[in-house]
Specification:
Helix content is 47%, strand content 10%. By secondary structure, the protein is α/β, with parallel strands linked by helices. It has one domain (47-145, 182-300): Rossmann fold, CATH 3.40.50.300. The strands form two sheets. It has a four-stranded parallel sheet with strand order 5-4-6-7, sandwiched between helices. A three-stranded antiparallel sheet has the order 1-2-3, with helices on one face. The protein binds adenosine-3'-5'-diphosphate. The site of adenosine-3'-5'-diphosphate has 21 residues, from helix 3, helix 7 and helix 14.
């Protein structure tokens, strides 16, 4: 592993005051720990056809989709007063491929939870995921909000103030493709193109659509995963109970998410809940920045049929 790491291009993010070192592994950038985790998963992970993959680029709505999927899949086991989502951060409830291989193997053995989350780009998924025809849910979000969210997440994780860590520099690096699991456009395009070839195994969700109409999207998610809501459940308001449970307001105000931290380097859970809005980028972007990223995304997505907000 050490020899492999030595061969990879490295980049230290200037805006992070030298605190973030990314490695370029198989055409995407990420931290050393996650390169190692991704590599191990590729070498050893054996998917089961019943696995449901929750895939995303960081800061696009992973926490939200994981919460919804977990609440939907486990709704026979737990109700809204006993669900682990009330006492554990969702990243502890749904295993992450790059970190939790043992837990996933245990879940396979006990058939306890079919959900597996990953940030790996589509071409880097372990071969068995594709060979097993696993269902894949992919969430994506407009690039400008992802840039802002990504910046604040890493800045706060590093205890840097906005003065210490200039947003403009973080923006420039993102535009160069250097961000967690970036380039962001390649991440989306990988899943987008694969979904056109294999529409039966993909459900693509947009963060903005989820904001606009959480109920219908939760319904789509449940149907796609093979856990559809029955007419009785719909009448009893089960979908609404799940969407309220997983709402930003509810999740961000739970004690565990206000004060707890998780195994990912002791990261505070509250970092996963910032504003949860569509369009916060307007508070950060100059006109020039807006034009630059719009042009860049137009160039990258042109001819692909993919339209971000
Ligand atoms: P902001 O930083 O724009 O607020 P990820 O989960 O992929 O890391 O993405 C984090 C982003 O999703 C953050 O966006 C966070 O606030 C937002 N988020 C987390 N939980 C949410 C929820 N239940 N509903 C809506 N947005 C949520």
């Amino acid at each position: 592993m050490e020899d492999m790491l030595k061969t990879l291009p490295q980049h230290t993010c200037s805006w992070s005051k030298g605190n973030i070192a990314f490695y370029k592994y198989q055409n995407f950038w990420t931290s050393q720990t996650l390169v190692v985790g991704g590599h191990l998963a590729q070498q050893t992970f054996k998917a089961e056809p019943t696995d449901i993959f929750l895939c995303s680029s960081p800061k696009t709505g992973t926490t939200w989709v994981k919460s919804l999927a977990f609440a939907i899949v486990t709704r026979q086991k737990f109700d809204d007063s006993t669900t682990p989502l009330l006492t554990k951060n969702v990243h502890e409830c749904v295993p992450f491929l790059e970190r939790d291989l043992e837990k996933i193997v245990e879940n396979h053995k006990n058939s306890s939870l079919p959900l597996v989350a990953t940030h790996l780009p589509y071409p880097s998924l372990p071969e068995s995921v594709i060979a097993s025809n696993c269902k894949i849910v992919y969430v994506y979000r407009n690039t400008k909000d992802v840039i802002v969210s990504h910046y604040h997440f890493l800045r706060k994780a590093l205890n840097l103030t906005c003065e210490d860590a200039p947003f403009e520099e973080a923006f420039e690096e993102f535009c160069q493709g250097i961000s967690g699991y970036g380039p962001y456009w390649d991440h989306i395009l990988g899943y987008w193109k694969a979904s056109l070839e294999r529409p039966d195994i993909f459900l693509l969700l947009k963060y903005e659509d989820l904001k606009k109409d959480t109920t219908s999207n939760a319904k789509r998610l449940a149907e796609f995963m093979g856990y559809p809501f029955s007419t009785e459940e719909e009448k009893a308001g089960v979908i609404e109970k799940i969407t309220s449970l997983c709402s930003f307001e509810n999740m961000s105000n739970l004690e565990v998410n206000k004060t707890g931290s998780n195994r990912v380097g002791g990261l505070e859970n509250k970092l996963y809940f910032r504003k949860g809005e569509d369009g916060d980028w307007k508070n950060y972007f100059t006109n020039e920045m807006k034009q630059k990223i719009d042009k860049l995304m137009d160039d990258k997505l042109s001819g692909t049929g993919l339209i971000l907000k």
